[in-house]
User: What shape does this take?
Amino acid sequence: MAQIWDPLRKKNVTATPEEQVRQWFILQLRQAFHVPVAMMNSEVGFLFGGKRYRADIIVYDRAGAPLVVVECKRPDVAIDEEVARQAMQYNSVLKVKYLMLTNGKMTYIYTLKGGVFALCDHIPSYEEMICQQ
Assistant: This one.
């Protein structure tokens, strides 16, 4: 099967449709959001309710605390309430300020305001995200 380079894990990984979206979004985080590569990690494992989960991408602030959790889906998977719920579940452990959901065709960015995630009206830069904390 075809391979694709993951600059965060520093290795070739199988180029599944979801992995291709993940690698595309890592590039977007670097180019559109100006996130330093050193402040991102992919396929991050954590425990929630005694069960093991993996976040597709986590962006960290300069102190090393999780700032953004990104949930990537294959292009044929709709970004719907179920996907948002999954990312919000992750947030109960990760305590991030931003959620990003993408299937490579549609991307939604949410920010935590008053304890509730609200849709962002623009693409925040990394500097803007860390200044909003």
In short: Residues 17-31 form the longest helix (15 residues). The CA atoms of residues 8 and 41 lie 6 Å apart. The radius of gyration is 14 Å. Strands lie at 3-6, 11-14, 40-48, 51-60, 66-72, 98-102, 107-113, 116-119.
